[in-house]
Amino acid sequence: MYKIAAMGDRDSIYGFASLGVSIFPVDDSNEAVKTLRRISENGYAVIYITENLAQQISAELDRIKDNPLPAVIPIPGVSGNNGMGMKQVSRFVERAVGSDIVK
Amino acid sequence: MAVMNVNPTRMELTNLKRKLTTARRGHKLLKDKRDELMRRFLDLVRENKQLRKQVEEGISEANRHMAVARSVMSDSALDVALMMPTQEMSLEIEEKNVMSVMLPVFNTKLKTADENDIYSYGFAFTSADLDDAVKSLSDIMPLMLRLAEVEKSCQLMSAEIEKTRRRVNALEHVMIPRYEETIKFITMKLDENERSSTTRLMKVKSMMLEDARQKALAQDREAAAQF
């Protein structure tokens, strides 16, 4: 049995609590890395993370990206969408094909 | 391409020929694997992009509602309203094997039977905008889960495709040409050996013949002298 988590600044993720998603409000990147490590070992299969925060800890995300679990999914926060999620999808295509052919 | 460092013997040749057949078969299989993975991956990526667009729109919609709710309610009231969630979502994970890549399949389980049981507060002291915010998030949740599934699958598949592509290329451009060159080298060397031994035999034969002729000639001359 796995759980779902949301990480990011408090305002962006607070609404998810009512849906039964565990929320982990974090503000700085050090804390975020620590929290991410802790929760990915504690039965969370899907972790939604705000794009702003994801950008700050991209090194850590790269480290765990080839593990089958957890799936770390960037989502836009209250401050808006910085296109990181879409860029990530394009990166998958680039990695597999060599150039981004899916527009 | 460099020829491998081997002895030019028949045994080495047989071994190399066997290795070349295996490499060719492996190359064909891996190429098929890469093509099939690529086909599935491209379908999945298209779905991923579409889902992501929908989810991002849905979340910014929900955030707009949330912003309104936050502006009409005090922070503490909002905290209280969302402090104790009634719903709890958990996942059962199955694995799907696609061309030896294990892709996750998520099945959602809810704690309470009614999936609309998402309002963790009484309606008396909260703003209706909060209801909207929670509702719009809950509407987008199935899509978000599907997005998580698809995006993780894309991530895993892209890694596998990269690996397979490298293997295919290594076989095609390094291993197979190297084997072919080495086989050619050994064949040439063996042929050359054969030719040189033939010439040697011919030379020896002609020397022996010449020798015999000289002997016969000498005998003849001796016989003629005694006559």
Provide an overview of this structure.
The complex is a heterodimer of chains A (103) and B (227). Chain A is of the alpha/beta class and 103 residues long. Chain A is built from five helices and four strands. Chain A has a four-stranded parallel sheet with strand order 2-1-3-4. Chain A is globular. Chain B has three helices and two strands, in the order ααββα. Chain B is rod-shaped, with a radius of gyration of 40 Å. In chain B, β1 and β2 form a beta hairpin. Chain B has a domain at 10-83 and 123-176: Orthogonal Bundle (Helix Hairpins). Chain B has a two-stranded antiparallel sheet with strand order 1-2. Chain B is mainly alpha-helical. Chains A and B meet through β1, β3, β4 and α5 of A and α1, β1, β2 and α3 of B. β1 (2-8) of chain A pairs antiparallel with β1 (89-98) of chain B, so a sheet runs across the interface.
| Strand order in the sheet with the most strands of chain A | 2-1-3-4
- Report on the biggest sheet of chain A: 4 strands, parallel
The CATH class of the domain at 10-83 and 123-176 in chain B turns out to be: Mainly Alpha
**SS class of chain A:** alpha/beta
Distance separating the two termini of chain A: 37 Å
The CATH architecture of chain A can be named as: 3-Layer(aba) Sandwich
Q: What key attributes describe this structure?
A:
heterodimer; A: 103 residues; alpha/beta; Rossmann fold; four-stranded parallel sheet; 5 helices; 22% strand; B: 227 residues; mainly alpha; Helix Hairpins; two-stranded antiparallel ribbon; 3 helices; rod-shaped
Question: How are the secondary structure elements laid out?
Answer:
The complex is a heterodimer of chains A (103) and B (227).
Chain A: E1 2-8, H1 10-13, E2 22-25, H2 29-40, E3 44-50, H3 51-56, H4 58-64, E4 71-75, H5 84-97
Parallel strand pairs in A: 1-2, 1-3, 3-4
Chain B: H1 10-72, H2 75-83, E1 89-98, E2 101-110, H3 128-226
Helix pairs in contact in B: 1-3
